[in-house]
Fold this protein.
Amino acid sequence: YDCIIMAYYPVQLNPDSRWDKRGNSIIDIILILIGLGYKKIALKIKLGHLSDEHYYYRSILEMNGIVDKIKIITGHLYEHIGETNLAIGDISTAAIEFTCHNIPYYIYEPFENGVTDDMINSTSLFNRKSISRTPTELENNLANHFPSIISNYDQIFDGTELSKINYSQLINWKDFLIN
């Protein structure tokens, strides 16, 4: 694929998030990609092929006359991660998964998705400048080849393997005992 778009799941703990706007986010992304000349676009959803999620996104694509331009894919992300040149989605573990495979990941986090600027600026993986909050910002970042992950690869992935960490040494179990 020229691009895999990750389905959107707004932050429901924020009263400013808009679950009903997730389809708009997908349409914004698709129209930008088409405008930039991308042809082979996939939308990755979490649930199975016959799920409500599949029908929801298919309906949104049909209403906008672009259902034939997008392939909806399901299954585990690792089954598709090597099939694309880049990915777009919200702040999620997919950003790390694509980065691990050296595939540029563009974060598009519209305000109605419920993520605040404070949340965005609380990490060293990306910052407010490296992610897109509006369709114009996303289009500019794509056109300028400016993906969202700003930490270098070694900062993210270099360290002790989880299987080699002795967790019992990290926790003083005596602190948890009831006298």
Notes: The mean pLDDT is 87. Helices lie at 22-35, 52-63, 93-100, 117-120, 135-143, 153-157, 167-170.
